[in-house]
Design goal:
The chain is α+β, with helices and mostly antiparallel strands. The chain has two domains: 68 residues, no CATH class; 60 residues, OB fold (Dihydrolipoamide Acetyltransferase, E2P) (Beta Barrel), CATH 2.40.50.140. The protein is 48% helix and 25% strand. The chain has a five-stranded mixed β-barrel. β2 and β3 form a beta hairpin. α2 packs antiparallel against α3. The protein is rod-shaped, with a radius of gyration of 27 Å. The protein starts with a helix and ends with a strand.
């Protein structure tokens, strides 16, 4: 089998695996393997193929690493999806402790009410801790 076919097969395989992971590192290495395939197809020797692939992989990994470090941290996505959504106060479990049951997404949830809330209040979710919603009458 020709060298360029081995490089190309490895590159496409790495890119396909990258599509399942989403980290971009395997994408860079896959592209580097494709550069090695290009060098082999153009007739470069094995060492030139390897050096071309290493140069592209090293610079690409450095760029991806730099990009990941500059990206802002994302909050907990499960809590983020619920934040700001409205719930309806169903019943107090312990009003003095701020524990209640609320209706949200077609079911009843345990909730910790932050601050005071009227019995018929519409509340807003601030965050979710496991199965307990932290809610208040103020929008987050």
């Amino acid at each position: 089998m020709e060298n360029y076919l081995v490089w190309a097969f490895a590159g496409f395989l790495l890119i396909i695996i990258e599509l399942m992971t989403g980290t971009f590192y395997l994408l860079v290495i896959g592209v580097a393997a494709l550069i090695g395939a290009l060098a082999a197809w153009l007739g470069a020797g094995m060492w030139m193929q390897v050096l071309a692939a290493i140069a592209v992989a090293a610079s690409g990994i450095a760029l991806v690493h730099y990009w990941w470090r500059k990206r802002p941290e994302m909050p907990n996505s499960s809590a983020d999806l619920d934040a700001g959504q409205t719930v309806v106060l169903d019943a107090w479990v312990n009003q003095a402790a701020g524990l209640a049951r609320v209706k949200y997404r077609g079911s009843t949830w345990d909730a910790k009410v932050l601050g005071a809330a009227a019995p018929e209040a519409v509340l807003y979710i601030h965050q979710r801790n496991g199965g307990v919603l932290e809610v208040s009458s103020q929008q987050p």
